[in-house]
Amino acid sequence: MTLNEPMVYLTRKAEFSASHYYHNPDFTPEENRRIFGKCNNPNGHGHNYVLEVTVKGEVDPRSGFVVDLKQLKEILRREVLEAYDHRFLNKELPEFLHRIPTTENLAIAVWERLVETFEMARLHRVRIYETPDLFVDFYGEP
Amino acid sequence: MKAYLTRRYRFSASHRLHSEDMSEEQNEATYGKCNNPYGHGHNYALEVTISGQVDEKTGMICNLIDLDGFVQREIIERFDVQNLNMLSDFTGAVPTTEKLCTVIHDILHRGFKFAHLEKVRIEETMMNSFEYAGGEEPRK
């Protein structure tokens, strides 16, 4: 049977806590302070991040799943939480050695960590809440 | 790379839903409790979504200081703790949250030049919300 199955979107949440600061070594100290404000404090500050990963796919007629949630949960744990939870993002993550760990760049980095890992479903969106009042969505668009 | 940033703000305001184009009975039938001549209020939550390329030098679509400053100056100060029916934005219009969405979208679309305005979403209560993307289909 090759009849099209319905396309369904599935979202899984995860939480991690991490610290960061915003600083561009190409800027002068004054520029860094003006552009990044309080976030430029080199000692860092932290957030409780909430990650939402949305995958999409056709419902598998045998399992009734778009994706095996156990596998998705394990992938998020292995690829993201193990790396980011309780870390100083600027100092401990290779992707942020030369990229400022803003919420925008975090969403892109999580996408890059996940995009090749799914077998059944395709990654649709990565959403990261830095606080309940600020979040960024990334869809893999250039 | 293109990303979408959403910022959430809060303001409180009162309104009365009443249309001059309807009879008293029609207003009562259409708006129910919301037609109470003394008005009533809500704690609105406003979400503004902007999009654009993430600047390699700053890691940002636009500086949050600019977005927060604009929204505080042009939107929160205009609507917070006000009676919407009394504002010129709603002259000849009923200040429904649909209308409020389009009014706020217009203010941002006209005045905010640091990033592309993607959409405006307003929660009137925890139970209902409204979105306006300038006539486009909102990105999900």
The most extensive interface between chains reads: A-B, 26 and 19 residues
Order of helices and strands of chain A: EHEHEHHEE
Unreliable segments of 5+ consecutive residues of chain B: none
User: Helix/strand-derived class of chain B?
Assistant: alpha+beta
Strand content of chain B: 25-35%
Strand order of the largest sheet of chain A: 3-1-2-4-5
Fold and architecture overview:
The complex is a heterodimer of chains A (142) and B (140). Chain A has 142 residues and is of the alpha+beta class. Chain A has a single domain (7-138), classed as 6-pyruvoyl tetrahydropterin synthase/QueD (Tetrahydropterin Synthase, Chain A, 2-Layer Sandwich). Chain A is built from 4 helices and 5 strands. Chain A has a 5-stranded mixed beta sheet with strand order 3-1-2-4-5. The longest helix of chain A has 16 residues, at 69-84. Chain A starts with 6 loop residues before the first strand and ends with a strand. The mean pLDDT of chain A is 95. With 140 residues, chain B is α+β, with helices and mostly antiparallel strands. Chain B has a single domain, classed as Tetrahydropterin Synthase, Chain A (2-Layer Sandwich), CATH 3.30.479. In chain B, strands 3-1-2-4-5 form a 5-stranded mixed beta sheet. Chain A binds chain B through residues 22, 24, 26-27, 35-37, 99-105, 107-108, 132-139, 141-142, and chain B through 1-9, 54, 57-61, 63-65, 139. Strand 5 of chain A pairs antiparallel with strand 1 of chain B.
